[in-house]
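User: I'm writing a tutorial on reading structure tokens. Could you give me a worked example: one chain, its sequence, then its tokens, then a sentence or two explaining what the tokens reveal?
Assistant: Sure. Here is the example chain.
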Amino acid sequence: MSDTTKPLILFSGTSCPLCDTAKQMIDATLIDAEQLVEVINVRDDHDLYHQYGARIPVFYRTDSREELPWPFDQQQLIEFLS
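And here are its predicted structure tokens:
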């Protein structure tokens, strides 16, 4: 996994409309999304691809190691972040 300093990761992929929707929802929910969320394309890493490739988008908290898999709605996202 990435050595990130950002507390949140969105595991994503290219040409992934669901990932785009999840990113838009995250951006609308978090004021500092650019500073807080690292978007990682799972296709760039063999291990991540095998772990997340069939499940993207997946939102991940680095502090608690909790995952919020798609599909999620705005309320679930807010609860996940609190």
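What the tokens reveal: The domain at 8-81 is CATH 3.40.30.10 (Glutaredoxin). The CA atoms of residues 3 and 62 lie 10 Å apart.
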